[in-house]
Specification:
Blueprint (H helix, E strand, L loop, with lengths): L4 H14 L4 E3 L5 E4 L2 H12 L5 H10 L3 E2 L13 E4 L6
Helix pairs in contact: 1-2
């Protein structure tokens, strides 16, 4: 089963409180950050739905209209992290 937007919201909320070093909400609450892709894929994705690869998670994000804003150039951005946003996806 692929994740839906509600699943993504739940997993980000869970990580934000239980493992913010893996994934968390951005300070503005309008984006989220996957900080440790390996742990996110192997530990947290299986807690919420059938295990899938992170690349499949990314495809689902694209299908739901999420935008990967990791490539925007700001001093806060870390190239090992992925930043995601959606206009209607807010903390």
């Amino acid at each position: 089963m692929s994740p839906n937007a509600k699943d993504v919201y739940e997993i980000i909320n869970h990580c934000d409180t239980e493992a913010p070093q893996v994934a968390s909400w951005g300070e503005d609450g309008r984006h989220f950050v996957v900080k440790d892709i390996t742990s996110f894929e192997t530990t947290f994705i299986p807690k919420f739905y059938n295990p899938i690869k992170y690349t499949s998670f990314v495809k689902q994000m694209n299908n739901y209209g999420f935008v990967n804003v990791s490539r925007l150039s700001t001093s806060e951005r870390d190239s090992r992290r992925e930043y995601w946003r959606h206009d209607f996806f807010v903390k």
